[in-house]
Amino acid sequence: QVHLVESGGGLVQAGDSLRLSCTGSGSTFSNYAIAWHRQAAGKEREFLAVIGWEGGRMFYADPAKGRFTVSRDNARNTVYLQMNDLKPEDTATYYCAADPSYNQVISPFNRGSWGQGTQVTVSA
């Protein structure tokens, strides 16, 4: 399995932007579809965005549509989540997940690889 590490979180104000990174190691990164999920305090983990093995097949959940963009650079073993116009309700821990199966990685209960998460806090 691939080992994932997220980075790029922080404390920002409403309307600001952040770019999260998810870097993989230990396995061939391009063999995995990568998804971003998030979990706010007291809430269930929710799917945000997914990207296919070579950078195509992007799909976004409603909370991410229009504001978030997922991309990947397999030469750097990294997937990015560009988040614009952040809102206080975006405050959560953000996780990336990897699975050879595109359909499986979308699930918040996916049994593939997960990173440790990066905290995003958006103040009003």
Question: Can you walk me through this structure?
Answer:
- The protein has 124 residues and is mainly beta.
- It has 1 helix and 11 strands, in the order βββββββββαββ.
- Strands 2, 4, 5, 6, 9, 10 and 11 form a 7-stranded mixed sheet that branches. Strands 1-3-8-7 form a 4-stranded antiparallel sheet, with no helix packed on it.
- The protein is globular and about 40 Å long.
- The termini are far apart.
- The mean pLDDT is 96.
Q: What does the secondary structure layout of this molecule look like, with pairings?
A:
Blueprint lengths: L2 E5 L2 E4 L4 E8 L7 E7 L6 E6 L7 E2 L7 E6 L4 E6 L8 E8 L2 H4 L7 E2 L3 E6 L1
Parallel strand pairs: 2-11
Antiparallel strand pairs: 1-3, 3-8, 4-5, 4-9, 5-6, 7-8, 9-10, 9-11
Mean residue pLDDT: 96
Low-confidence stretches: none
| Radius of gyration, CA atoms, in whole angstroms | 13 Å
Order of helices and strands: EEEEEEEEEHEE
Strand content: over 45%
Q: Count of helices?
A: 1
Please tally the β strands and state the result: 11
The span between the termini is 39 Å
The shape is globular
What class, by secondary structure content? mainly beta
Instruction: Give the helix proportion (percent range).
Output: under 10%
Q: Can you summarize the main beta sheet?
A: 7 strands, mixed
Concise overview:
The chain is built from 1 helix and 11 strands, in the order E-E-E-E-E-E-E-E-E-H-E-E. The strands form 2 sheets. Strands 2, 4, 5, 6, 9, 10 and 11 form a 7-stranded mixed beta sheet that branches. It has a 4-stranded antiparallel beta sheet with strand order 1-3-8-7, with no helix packed on it.
